[in-house]
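Sample log: GNAT superfamily N-acetyltransferase.
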Amino acid sequence: MSAITVVTDRSEWRDGFEQRVLAAYRAAGCSEPLALALLERALKGIEDWTVATDGTGWIAVGVSEEKGTTVGRIHDLTVPQGRAWAERWCAEQGARRVEVRRTGGPGPFADYAVLGQNRIRTAAERPELPPELTVRRLTEQEYPAWYASEEAEYIADIVRAGALTPEQAKLKSDQDMARYLPEGFLTPGHAFYAMEAGGELIGTGWVNHGFLPGVTFGFSLLVHEEHRGKGYGRAAMTVGEWATRQGGDEAMMFNVFGGNEVAMNLYDSTGFAVLDEFRFLELP
């Protein structure tokens, strides 16, 4: 393998990188406006990345501080056998963990642990709510109890994924909830639902319409623990599709954390494909 060297002129790499990212999202079935919006997200912070080449391909890496920990990221890798160089570079910058975003399969990162996935599916044009469920809007009076339950579930999911401690997960939860719900119950574009069966509350839903072009993001479609295993999980996914169409969007997207195999199996069986996968490796 030729020596890998850092480059200063990144124009050739960047043109190719943007085309590769767009091609991956198009291959995943994204509309052009959605693919372009996802590309914009993928390019966040690109000016701070370090780019290297061996003359046959490219490596793009970067680091950031998160919750007091230096995290390395491999943003692009087309150099055969270049992963070791990227990991070593991250370690030399003080990183304790390396993360990577993949579209179209894990590629050379199959041994990295799954941190999370973005899943997506076009919603049925006229989704019919399950007859056993009654769906209504959550009331403002119910919001504080919902928020406390949602936050506890979110923290547990983060910890289960294995990348953060409970204390770090609590900090991330506080920051994320403040960012996504700056006005709480009245935050524009967000809708909250209660799902009932037999007169009993069995779960809740939280969606954000217009999260991306034509996309509703399902932040949560939660069936309460005592009601799980009764088929309500699949019904909740239909509620999400129904909410997507109610908001005027065509596709529903959501995130699932690594380690939640039950949820991943449910999403596989209901046709929600993996759009992006985030993987990580703890460094020595």
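Observation: The first strand starts at residue 5 and ends at 6.
Observation: The chain has two domains: 5-111, 121-276.
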